[in-house]
Amino acid sequence: MNGNGFEEIYDLVCVGFGPASLAIAVAIHDQGISPRVLYLERQHEFRWHGGMLLPDARMQISFLKDLATLRNPRSHFTFLNYLHSNNRLVAFTNLSTFLPFREEYNAYLAWCASHFDRYVRYGQETISIDPHHGPDGKVESWQIFSRDVTTREITLVKARHVVIAVGGSPKIPPSLSGPSPEGPIIHSSSYVTTIPKVLADKSCKRRVAIVGGGQSAAEIFNNLQQNFENVSVSLYIGDSALRPSDDSPFVNEIFDPDRVDDFYTLPVEAQKETLQRNRATNYGVVRPELLDRLYESMYHQRLHEPDETKWRCKIVPRREVVSHQKRADGTVSLQFRNTTNGQIGSSEPPFDLVIAATGYVRDAHKSMLDSTKHLLKTGQYDITRDYRIRYRADSVSANCGIWLQGCCQDSHGVRIEGFPFFGG
Fold first, then answer.
1. What string of DSSP letters covers 18-72?
2. What's the predicted TM-score (pTM) here?
C-alpha cells in the first residue's frame, strides 16, 4: 500500500470525473474559491460514453444545458465559449441547431476537463470509502481507497466531504449473461471500440442481433445498416413498436431546477407514479428524427423487396430474450418469448454477434460504502434534498458527509442522462 496520502486531508474528493464532477469543478472555479480538491477517475483520460460516440449521433439536450450557462452565462466554461476558443462559433451557428454532434460535445467536456488536470488522478478505481473517527468517537473524515488500474497499487487519501458520481455500469439481463456468460455478446457501451475488431473483414457476411428499444439500440441499428453492407442485422424490441421520446416544451419542464423541490416533497407512491409518467422523456425511447430516418430506410428495403423475410435489416417487435446458447462454431442462438402470446422460439440461423442495448445499473455506491452502512440513519440510503446521504447525527460530524450524483432518481426525479447535476 502506498502511504503517501495519509497526511493529506482534502476538503473534497469526487469519485468519478464525468460530467457531474466536472460541473462541480467548474462551479468551484467560477466561485473563485480554492478548496483542497481531488478527483479520482477510473479511465486513463476524460472520455464521455466513448463506446457510443458514433459520427452522426447528436445530443438529446440543448447545448445551453451545458456545464455552466444556466448557472453563469458569462463563465469561461460555456459551450459557446468553447466553440469561440476553437474558432468554430460562426460555423456552428450556420447549422441552425441546438443539438450538437455527440462527439463534439465530448470534445467540449474534455476541453473543460483539461483545465483541471492537476487536480485529477486518472487510472484510479475507487474500491471503498471507510469512516475515520475523531477523538470524540464521531466520524470526522473519510478514507478513500483506490486502485491503480494498471499497476494494481492501492492508494489512500482522506477527505471531509466526498461526492460519488461514477455513472452507471452496463446492465446485461440474465438471459444474455447468466453465471457463466457465453458467446460473443457485448453491451452497447463498448460498441465503438468492439465493432472495428469484430467486423473488420467487410467481405465476410455476418449476422448481428441488437436487443433493446431505446436510443442506443436505434443508433447502433442505424450505424450497422448504413456502414456495414455485409451485415444482416435484426433489432429485437419487447414493445409493439419503437417509441418516440417526448421533449415537448411543457414536458421538458420536468428538468427545470425548481421541479426537484416539487418532486422531492411528494409522497413515495406519488413519486413512483410521476417517474412512470415521465419515462417517455428519457427511457426506452428514440428521438423522433432518428425514427423518421429508420423508417425511410426500412421503406427503401420494401421498395426493392416486398418480402420482409429477405430484408438485410429487420426490426422485430414483441420479442423478449429468455436465454441464449453458444454453438460449436462460435455463433450464438437466441431463444425468444413472444410478448403477445407467450410462445417460445429460437433464432435461425444463429448470430455472429449479439449487442445488448439494455441500459445501466446505478448502484456502484453501495459496494464502496459497505463499511458505512451501520451509520445510516434509517438503514437505507436516504438522501436529503441536497443529495447528501443521511447518516446519524450522533455518529457523523456535521462538517463531514457523502453526497451522491446520478443515482437519485427515486428521490429527486428524472434527470438528464449523463448530466444528473442539471436541474438542482
1. SHHHHHHHHHHHHHT----EEEEESSSS--SSGGG--TT-B-SS-TTSSSSTTT-
2. 0.90
